[in-house]
């Protein structure tokens, strides 16, 4: 099994966490997003959208899009479960995950930052304002949804790790990489830090991957 990723890819981070939680080993070829390696013809053969991650199961049909890969791993390797038993609870977990992975994260990825710079001619301060705005919008929504009495426990949904936590941690780590102020979101930070105490999350951290700098940039 191969997980095509990059140390800084938050979407790859999510999949890496899930693989660790489920005890699945995967080789991880690095596709450097900052150098544009995702646009190489050989990688487009893996994922025509030129995005990370892609999970090659060895059958010539790589999986793509992090949430779809997470759902596949949950169905193919159901232990330990990352979705709760109840339909309503599963919907809540998926909703929290979508805020992180589909509302905020797509607005701050390299291809968007490049478009803001090259096509809209926004300078670095303006681009950082854009990035922090959308990350903070998601953090504010998450904080409200995770307020006491909503089903939140030690983790996003009760006291068991779920897909919501996998996505929340990637969101918080990304917010920290972009130096967002997370002080207004204490529940979000508490849950993320609780997760990062677990080996499966800690080992998957972007700054612990090959190629990561000693300090983020």
Short description:
The chain is mostly helical and 217 residues long.
Q: What is the CATH class designation of the largest domain?
A: Mainly Alpha
Instruction: Fill in the CATH topology of the largest domain.
Output: Glutathione S-transferase Yfyf (Class Pi), Chain A, domain 2
Along the chain, the helix and strand elements come as EHHEEHHHHHHH
| Low-pLDDT windows of residues | none
- The geometry reads as globular
**Which sequence of strands runs across the widest sheet?**
1-2-3
Fold and architecture overview:
The mean pLDDT is 92. The longest helix has 22 residues. The protein has two domains: 77 residues, 3-Layer(aba) Sandwich (Glutaredoxin), CATH 3.40.30; 116 residues, Up-down Bundle (Glutathione S-transferase Yfyf (Class Pi), Chain A, domain 2). Strands 1-2-3 form a three-stranded antiparallel beta sheet, covered by helices on one side. The chain is mainly α and 217 residues long. The protein contains nine helices and three strands. A hairpin with a 6-residue loop joins β2 and β3. The protein is 50% helix and 4% strand. The chain is globular and about 45 Å long.
């Amino acid at each position: 099994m191969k997980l095509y990723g990059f140390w800084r890819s938050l979407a790859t981070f999510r999949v890496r966490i899930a693989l660790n939680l489920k005890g699945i080993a995967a080789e991880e070829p690095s596709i450097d997003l900052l150098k544009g390696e995702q646009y190489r013809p050989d990688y487009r053969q893996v994922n025509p959208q030129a995005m990370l991650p892609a999970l090659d199961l060895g059958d010539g049909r790589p999986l793509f899009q992090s949430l779809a890969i997470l759902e596949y791993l949950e169905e193919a390797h159901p232990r330990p479960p990352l979705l709760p038993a109840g339909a309503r609870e599963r919907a809540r977990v998926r909703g929290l995950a979508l805020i992180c992975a589909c509302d905020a994260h797509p607005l701050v990825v390299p291809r968007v930052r490049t478009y803001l710079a090259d096509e809209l001619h926004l300078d670095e301060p303006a681009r950082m304002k854009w990035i922090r705005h959308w990350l903070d919008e998601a953090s504010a929504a998450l904080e409200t949804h995770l307020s006491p009495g909503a089903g939140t426990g030690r983790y996003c949904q009760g006291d068991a790790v779920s897909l919501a936590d996998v996505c929340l941690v990637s969101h918080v780590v990304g917010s920290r990489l972009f130096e967002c102020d997370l002080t207004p979101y204490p529940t979000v930070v508490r849950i993320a830090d609780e997760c990062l105490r677990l080996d499966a999350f800690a080992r998957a951290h972007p700054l612990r991957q090959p190629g990561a700098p000693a300090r983020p940039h």
